[in-house]
Amino acid sequence: MDQPLLNDLFALDRAHVLHPNHPVHQDIDFIVSRGEGVRLYDTTGRSFIDGRSQLNCVNLGYGYRRLVDAIKAQAEELSYLSIFYQFSHPQVITCAARLAASAPGDLDHVLFTSGGSEAMEAALAMVRLYWSRLGRAKTKIISRYKGYHGGTASAMAATGMAMGGQTSIQRLISGHVHIPAPNLYRSGAGMDPEAYAKLAADQLAEAIELEGPDSVAAFLAEPIIGVGGYVPPPPGYWPLVREICDRYGVLLILDEVMTGFHRTGPRFAADNWGLVPDILVAGKGINSCYVPCGAAIVSRRIVDVLAGARLSGFTHSGHPLAMAAANAAFDAYDQDGIEDNVGRIHRLMMDRLQGEFLALPHVGTVEGLGLMIGLELVAEKKERTRLPDKVTQGVVGKSLDQGLIIRARDGRLALCPPLVISEAEANEMLDILFPLIRDMNA
Ligand SMILES: Cc1ncc(COP(=O)(O)O)c(C=O)c1O
After folding, report:
1. Disulfide: which of 210, 275, 298, 380 matches 270 by Cβ 3.0-4.6 Å?
2. Which phi and psi angles does 164 have, rounded to 5°?
3. Is the pLDDT of residue 172 over 90?
C-alpha cells in the first residue's frame, strides 16, 4: 500500500476507532490486511506468526478453505434468518445437533449467541430461571479470582480480576462471590498435587457453606485459567469440584469459550477429566472466529425445568453464516487431523520448553495442555520471585519486533498458536523466543 494512503489509514484510525484493551488516544502500531495459515501480513508487507491465535480463538488459522467456501455458499443461499419465534434453518439445526453429539454427558440443547460474553449472560439467566421455577431462592454465583468470563455486565461481575475501566460495572452487580483458583506453582509449592487439588476444591465447599447452600445457584469457572495467566489445575481438582457441586445442589457452569474445540487436545477441556458440567459455554473456536458466534450448551435436565419459558436471544443468534462456518469447522475438526496435530505440536513444544527453556535462569515453570501453554518468567528461580510486569511485557514487545505475536499476563507468556501450526512453524516460534528470554534484563 502506498505511503499517503497508509498515513490516511493511521490518521483515520486515530480519529475514529476505539480499540478494546488499548489506552484511549494511544496510537496503534499495525494495520493488518491479510492472513494465511498461521501468518498475518500488515499493510507494509511485514509478516507475523500469530503465536496467540489472536484472542486464543483462530483455531484453524487464516483462509481455511472449508470455512471460506462454506461462508460464501451460505451467503448466496440464505444470508440471514432470525431463529426467533417459529423459524429455523438447516445450518443451525445441524450445528446444534453436532454440538449436542460432541458435548459431554446430557448437554444436548443449545442457545446460540454472537459471542462468549452473551453466551455467559444466557447461561447465568437460565440458571437463575431454573432455580426460581423450582421455587428455590438460589441466586448467588461463585466464580474464581483470575477467571475471565466476558465484557458484558454479569459476565464481568463474575470475572475475578479488575478489568480496567470496567471495575465499576463489576461492583454494581450483586450476588457474585469469588474464591481463589488453584495455582500449584504459586500457592501449592512443594505440596503433593493431589493434596493441593483437595485443598483448592475444599475452598469451594467452604464458600458454599459460608454463603449458605440454599442461596448458591452455580459455580462458574474456566477449566484452565486463560486470560488470567494460563494456569492449568492440578489433576484431581475437577472431579472433586463436581462432587462438591452435587453434594450441595449447586450447578456447574464450565466456561470453555477459550478451551473448547481442541485447544487443549480433545473437543472440550472437560474431556481431559471426564467432567460433565450442567452448562458448557462455548465461543471462539466454534467456528475459528470466521463469523461472530457463541453458544450455551445446556443439560436436558435444566431445559426440562424451563419448558414453556421464552428465553431471551440476540439478533445474531444462530446466524446462518456463523452456523455454516461452525459446520465447516466441525468437518475440519472431525476430518483434517487437527487433534493429532495438537498432540504432535504439544509434544514438540513441551520437549523444547521443558528442556532448553526451563534450563534458563529466568524460566520458573512451563505448564499447559494441548496448544494452551504458559511459561512463567521469574526474577529468581529458587524463591520463585516475581518479575516486574514490564520485563515480561518487554519480551512480548521484542518478540513482536521479530515477527512473533504472543501475549503475557501475571508473569506468564501465553503460547497458543493456531491448531494447524506445522512443526517448522512451531520451531520458528520457539527459535525467536529463546534468545529473547536467555538475554533478557531481569
Ligand atoms: C474464558 C472466556 N470466557 C468468556 C470470554 C468472552 O468471550 P467474547 O469476547 O467472545 O464475548 C472470553 C474471551 O476472551 C474468555 O476467554
Report:
1. 275
2. 45, -130
3. no
Residue-level pLDDT at 6? 82
C-beta neighbour count of 212 within 10 angstroms: 11
> Ligand 1, atom 13: nearest CA belongs to which residue?
150
Q: Cα(329) to centroid of ligand 1, in Å?
A: 19
What is the mean pLDDT of the segment spanning 201-228? Answer: 98
Q: How far is the CA of 227 from the centre of ligand 1 (A)?
A: 9
Share of the chain above pLDDT 70, in %: 98
Angle between helices 90-102 and 320-335 (to 10 degrees): 40
Compute the distance from residue 166 Cα to the ligand 1 centre, in Å.
15
Q: What is the CATH number of the domain that holds 92?
A: 3.40.640.10
Distance (Å, rounded) from C-alpha 345 to C-alpha 313?
A: 38
Please give the single-letter amino acid code of residue 366: V
Give domain status of residue 354, yes or no: yes
Tell me: do 309 and 420 sit in the same domain: no
HEC states along 73-88? HHHHHCCCCCCCCCCC
Q: For residues 180 and 146, what is the distance between their CA atoms, to the nearest angstrom?
A: 8
Could you list the residue range(s) of the whole structural domain that residue 46 is in? Answer: 31-63+337-438
Rounded CA separation 100/96 (Å): 6
Report the chain's mean pLDDT, rounded to a whole number. 96
Q: Is the CB of 143 under 6 A from ligand 1?
A: no
Rounded to whole angstroms, how far apart are CA atoms 345 and 417? 10
Would you say the CB of residue 258 lies under 6 angstroms from ligand 1? yes
Q: What angle do CA 75, 80, 83 make, to 5 degrees?
A: 140
Q: Last residue of a domain, which of 282, 308, 335?
A: 335
- Classified as helix, coil or strand, 68 is helix
What is the number of structural domains in the chain? 2
Q: Is 305 found in the same domain as 171?
A: yes
Contact status, residue 368 vs residue 226, Cβ threshold 8 Å: no
Does 189 share its domain with 315? yes
- Of 306, 335, 364, at which residue does a domain stop? 335
Q: Is the pLDDT of residue 438 over 80?
A: yes
Task: Check whether 435 has a pLDDT greater than 80.
Answer: yes
Does this model's pTM top 0.90? My answer is: yes
Q: Is the pLDDT confidence value at 169 over 90? A: no
Q: Is a pLDDT exceeding 90 seen at residue 251?
A: yes
Going by pLDDT thresholds of 50, 70 and 90, the confidence category of residue 162 is confident
Whole-angstrom distance, CA of residue 403 vs CA of residue 430: 12
CA of 381 to the centre of ligand 1 (A): 32
